Amino acid sequence: MNQQGSGRNTRTLWVLILLAAIYGGLLYFRHGVTGRAMLDGFIGVALGLYICSRPAANAVDLLFAERYKLRLITGGWAGLGWLALNLLVFSVGFAVIVLGTRQLAAAAI
């Protein structure tokens, strides 16, 4: 499933999920990454946007650059798994953005 050159790098997507889990774990167990809510919020929002950018880029590539492969990807379990992984990574990235925004709101109070 890890094909070089076609944008289907699942290892990168799993690493992004791991980064999100580390950020969330630090917020939960240490109540912050740096100890400053404003900086933790900026880190969270930036990290979340970066995490969301990979599946979004994969979707744009799939829709425009590799339009003919759409039928091949959605036709088998491996392709559907890759699409599901992209959706998962995008959802995790959105959750990190929400956590970062929450930290920013807490700093403003």
Please provide a written account of the structure.
The protein is elongated. It is built from four helices and no strands. The chain is mainly alpha-helical. It has one domain.
Write the layout of secondary structure elements.
Elements: H1 10-30, H2 37-65, H3 70-75, H4 77-108
Helix pairs in contact: 1-2, 1-4, 2-4
Short description, anyone?
By secondary structure, the protein is mainly alpha-helical. It has helices at residues 10-30, 37-65, 70-75, 77-108.
Radius of gyration: 16 Å
Count of discrete domains: 1
Count of helix runs: 4
The amount of helix comes to over 70%
Rough outline: elongated
Name the poorly predicted regions: 1-6
Record keyword descriptors for this entry.
109 residues; mainly alpha; 4 helices; 81% helix; disordered N terminus
